[in-house]
């Protein structure tokens, strides 16, 4: 029983980690008033650049490679998200159109570059250093709980949880967070108080690029191990759902992302678990999505995002 | 004068965007040491070289016209239907299922029945999101995304365990259900061009009439422009929300029928919801939501995508096409900047003339 639980928890964490990072990224962007449907594309870019970085530097960084590649994926994510920031903040593009461009651009661009770098192949080589399984010293020896939560588990997921707590603190307890939120709620008022509205919006989008890029990097380095067109297939959209589901609050967003991660992982490992073995897989595969709709309809209803979300702010002269 | 100017501009923006997108593609090809003239030459040959290629261009454009129209109807009413792909898949499943259940019905009966079934299935799937939005205020964006995945897994289950015995694809449907015709196939040198194109052209006219010439269309447009004012004027907001989504889904469902009965003539296990969903969205954005614009941009997508298949013959990866398409939509998105530059140019010309 404990063994089964341990399998469920650790695989749920593996699938949750990318979603937590990315959904938190989306939260920062939308808190600043910029809708970001481009999370999927940002994850794709992050996954691709982390894979390439990992493949070329593994001899230098050794076991640390996945972590540094994760940060690298985040940095490239920032660069890519700047397209979205420039388009929506300065050039007054519709946020959803610009986000769609990000999603259309990323797969084409990454596969094109993959073919350039890897002799015309549609996917990269397999990376040598992955995130793999981590056991936390001391904690893993706690009876029962240790085996379920801290032995052979996903380290990036715990980092993601820490980032969620940090994000909560930043958004709700710091001056920066207050400014970010005020820009997303009422940019005119924020502007009259001397807050740099455009600057805050850039910050929001760039943080979403960083976290989304890291999300993609975590996904590829802990699940598939190589980048191809199908590495990121919907995780960005699911993260967006987790963000709305979690009502733009980092802690509940994290919980929603873990919920999605758990249900995704159940569909993958369902055949190893006794009481799920005989269930046709379609139920497990479709369950997270159907449940989300039901929960939204029954318990949450109208999700109110930041008030000025999706509107272009035009600074008057 | 002003109206004419606005018309010129609303045509100029997509044209400039397309040219800018192609230019960017050329620059990327140059950066990676490909010859853009060769690359685009191969694309043009791939799109227009033989009757077969032209047929495939139109074949690819057909479902995009339908999903593009579907997106535009919901968008005009203020809804972002990101679930076109799932709704199209619903239409695809329903039409194939019906075609496989009654393979011996006469063609004149079976084809219309399948089209109606697929259309209704798409409408129903989108209607769920519309109903939830109207009744509970649930975001249609998130619900349609969730429904995309739900139907994807249901579809794969149906292929494997309901329509076949553990196979990855259903057998081909009977010729009685197919949208293909000997005439079109021969005309286009054996391409998959099919009768769906007539359905798509008919829908362009119908959607235009609906949106511009009927009360229902007027209400949809008003709700999109100002929901509160529309309600104050006595329009039923809930009814219009559901109506917009149902029409949008019906059109997407038809797009799926065209894929099922025309392009593939079967249903198979998919790894993602059909591409015609997101492409329809892009086509609609490029076409500015205008039915004729959607027709033209669908054809352009057909030229780029079918022509792009030929690009590897000169060594250029076909993904360059996706980059070009994304950049085109990007330039359409930043039309504020394009209009601004156009105004500057126009102003300069005016002053220049004044001095002369």
Summarize the structure.
Chain A has 317 residues and is an all-alpha fold. Chain A has 12 helices and no strands. Chain A has one domain (2-299): Orthogonal Bundle (ABC transporter involved in vitamin B12 uptake, BtuC), CATH 1.10.3470.
Task: Identify the notable features of this structure and list them briefly.
heterodimer, A: 317 residues, mainly alpha, ABC transporter involved in vitamin B12 uptake, BtuC, globular, B: mainly alpha, 15 helices, cell membrane (chain B), transmembrane helix (chain B), membrane (chain B), transmembrane (chain B)
Describe the overall structure.
The complex is a heterodimer of chains A (317) and B (356). Chain A has 317 residues and is mainly alpha-helical. Helix content of chain A is 70%, strand content 0%. Chain A has helices at residues 2-31, 39-61, 65-90, 95-117, 145-150, 155-173, 175-185, 187-192, 197-224, 235-245, 250-269, 281-300. In chain A, helix 1 runs parallel beside helix 6 (155-173). In chain A, 54% of the residues are buried. Chain B is an all-alpha fold and 356 residues long. Chain B has a domain at 61-302. Chain B is 77% helix and 0% strand. Chain B has helices spanning 2-31, 36-48, 51-76, 84-101, 107-136, 140-163, 182-187, 196-213, 215-225, 227-232, 237-264, 276-286, 291-308, 320-333, 335-355. Chains A and B meet through helix 4, helix 10 and helix 12 of A and helix 6, helix 12 and helix 14 of B. Chain A: It is found in: Cell membrane. Chain A: This is Sugar ABC transporter permease.
């Amino acid at each position: 029983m404990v063994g089964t639980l341990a399998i469920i928890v650790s695989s749920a964490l593996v699938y949750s980690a990318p979603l937590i990072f990315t959904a938190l990224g989306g939260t920062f962007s939308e808190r600043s008033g910029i809708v970001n449907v481009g999370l999927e594309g940002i994850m794709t870019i992050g996954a691709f650049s982390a894979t390439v970085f990992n493949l070329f530097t593994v001899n230098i960084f050794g076991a640390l490679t996945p972590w540094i590649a994760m940060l690298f994926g985040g940095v490239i994510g920032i660069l890519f998200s700047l397209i979205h920031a420039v388009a929506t903040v300065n050039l007054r593009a519709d946020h959803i159109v610009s986000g769609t461009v990000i999603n259309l651009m990323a797969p084409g661009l990454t596969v094109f570059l993959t073919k350039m770098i890897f002799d015309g192949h549609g996917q990269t080589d397999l990376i040598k250093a992955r995130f793999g399984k981590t056991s936390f010293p001391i904690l893993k020896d706690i009876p029962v709980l240790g085996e379920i939560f801290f032995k052979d588990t996903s380290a990036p997921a715990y980092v993601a949880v820490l980032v969620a707590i940090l994000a909560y603190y930043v958004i709700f307890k710091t001056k920066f967070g207050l400014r970010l939120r005020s820009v997303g709620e009422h940019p005119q008022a924020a502007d009259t108080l001397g807050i740099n509205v455009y600057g805050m919006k850039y910050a929001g989008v760039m943080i979403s690029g960083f976290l989304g890029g890291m999300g993609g990097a975590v996904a590829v380095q802990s699940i598939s191990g190589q980048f191809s067109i199908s590495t990121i297939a919907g995780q960005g959209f699911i993260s967006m759902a987790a963000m709305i589901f979690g009502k733009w609050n980092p802690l509940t967003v994290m919980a929603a992302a873990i919920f999605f991660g758990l249900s995704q992982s159940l569909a993958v490992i369902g055949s190893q678990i006794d009481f799920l073995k005989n269930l046709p897989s379609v139920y497990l595969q479709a369950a997270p999505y159907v449940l989300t709709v039901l929960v939204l309809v029954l318990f949450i209803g109208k999700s109110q995002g930041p008030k000025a979300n999706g509107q272009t702010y035009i600074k008057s002269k | 004068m002003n109206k004419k100017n606005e018309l010129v501009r609303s045509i100029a923006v997509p044209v400039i965007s397309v040219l800018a997108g192609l230019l960017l593609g050329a620059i990327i090809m140059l950066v990676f040491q490909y010859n853009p003239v060769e690359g685009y030459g191969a694309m043009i040959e791939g799109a227009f070289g033989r009757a077969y290629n032209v047929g495939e261009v139109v074949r690819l454009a057909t479902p995009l016209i339908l999903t593009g129209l579907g997106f535009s109807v919901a968008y005009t009413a203020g809804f972002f239907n990101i679930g076109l792909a799932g709704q199209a898949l619903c239409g695809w499943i329903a039409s194939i299922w019906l075609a496989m259940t009654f393979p011996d019905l006469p063609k004149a009966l079976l084809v219309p029945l399948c089209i109606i079934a697929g259309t209704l299935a798409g409408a129903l799937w989108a209607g769920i999101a519309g109903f939830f939005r109207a009744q509970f205020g649930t975001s249609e964006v998130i619900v349609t995304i969730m429904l995309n995945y739900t139907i994807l897994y249901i579809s794969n289950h149906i292929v494997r365990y309901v329509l076949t015995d553990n196979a990855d694809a259903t057998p081909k449907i009977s010729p009685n259900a197919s949208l293909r015709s000997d005439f079109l196939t021969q005309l286009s040198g054996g391409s998959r061009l099919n009768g769906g194109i007539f359905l798509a052209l008919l829908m362009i006219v119908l959607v235009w009439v609906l949106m511009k010439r009927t009360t229902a269309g007027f209400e949809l447009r008003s709700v999109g422009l100002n929901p509160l004012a529309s309600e104050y004027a006595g329009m039923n907001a809930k009814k219009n929300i559901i109506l917009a989504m149902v029409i949008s889904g019906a059109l997407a469902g038809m797009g799926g029928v065209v894929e099922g009965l025309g392009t593939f003539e079967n249903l198979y296990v998919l790894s993602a919801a059909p591409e015609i969903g997101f492409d329809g969205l892009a086509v609609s954005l490029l076409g500015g939501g205008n039915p004729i614009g959607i027709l033209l941009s669908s054809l352009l997508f057909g030229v780029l995508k079918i022509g792009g298949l030929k690009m590897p013959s000169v060594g250029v990866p076909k993904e360059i096409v996706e980059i070009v398409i994304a950049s085109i939509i990007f330039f359409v998105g930043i039309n504020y900047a394009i209009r601004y530059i156009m105004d500057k140019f126009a102003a300069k010309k005016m002053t220049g003339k004044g001095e002369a």
